[in-house]
Amino acid sequence: AHPNRLADVRRRLTAWLAAHGASSAEANDIVLAAHEAAMNAIEHAYGPGDAEITVSAMLRDDGVEIAIHDSGRWREARSEHRGRGRSIMSALMDDVSVDTGPTGSTVRLRRRLDDPEGE
Predict the structure, then answer these.
(1) DSSP characters for 44-78?
(2) CA separation for the pair 119, 115 (Å, rounded)
(3) For position 39, what pLDDT does the model report?
(4) What is the dihedral of CA 115, 92, 14, 42, to 10 degrees?
(5) Of the candidates 63, 70, 117, which has an alpha carbon nearest to the alpha carbon of residue 95?
(6) Pairing relationship of beta strands 104-112 and 63-70 according to DSSP bridges
(7) How far, in Å, CA of 81 to CA of 99, rounded?
(8) How far apart are CA 78 and CA 34, in angstroms?
(9) What pLDDT does residue 6 have?
(10) What is the largest CA-CA distance in the chain?
(11) What's the pLDDT band for 76 if we cut at 50, 70, 90?
(12) What is the pLDDT of residue 81?
């Protein structure tokens, strides 16, 4: 995942959230959590080189769910100074779940929006 592509994903996700009633503060939190999930996927699922992840966003009741999927295999972090991504995601989102399997991992981030349709 090239840094420019991650920046594009952040921009597109921010615009999508705004269009679906997220406040600027909510969108910032959600995009930061999604960025952390993407960076975790790149760090843990792939070796050095290009990584491929899929990011999807959907409305769920009174909030949103962002899913970040990789098709890599889990690897330990390459640095002892890593590992804060999960705590950041948990602090910013209402619910964080991780499903791992032989075809990769999916991180699901869920957060209720205060005013989901901008009413």
Answers:
(1) HH--SS---EEEEEEEETTEEEEEEEE-S-----S
(2) 6
(3) 85
(4) -150
(5) 63
(6) antiparallel
(7) 24
(8) 21
(9) 83
(10) 46
(11) low
(12) 47
